[in-house]
Amino acid sequence: MAPLIMDVNVSVGTIFSIIKAPEGVENPTAADFMQPGTMVAEIHRILTRGGIFIYPMDSKMKAAGKTGKLRLLYEANPMGFIVEQAGGMATTAYSRIMELQPTDLHQRVPVVMGSRNEVELVTGYHNV
Predict the structure, then answer these.
(1) What is the pTM for the complete model shown?
(2) Sign of CA dihedral 41, 44, 46, 48
(3) pLDDT tens string 86-100
(4) What domains are there in the chain, each with its CATH number?
C-alpha cells in the first residue's frame, strides 16, 4: 500500500485533504505527491461542507523577509469577504483580513479562513 500524508491545507473539521503517493513509488519525496490546492476550490468546499483553509506564515517566509504568500487585494480580501458573508471568519491568525489597510499593491499576508469556530480556535493559538 502506498504511503499517505496529510495536505498542508488540511481541514480541522470532518473533511481532510489526503494525498496518496503514486503506485509503485518507494520512499516518495514531496515532488512525488500531487497537491490539489487552489484556494477558490478549497473555499468552495469549505462553504459547502465546512472546514478551514490555512496558509500560515512559516519560518522560511520570515527568513526571506516575506510577510505571507497570498496577496491581500487579489486573493485574501475577495475570498475573506465571501467567507464572512456566508457566516465564516477570515484572519491572518492575528487580525481580521477585512480590517487590514493595504500598504502595497501586491502586499502578501498569511491566511486562515473558514468556519467561524475553527478559525477562532486557530487564531486563539496564535494570540496566546
Answers:
(1) 0.70
(2) negative
(3) 999 999 999 999 999
(4) 4-20+37-126 (3.40.190.80)
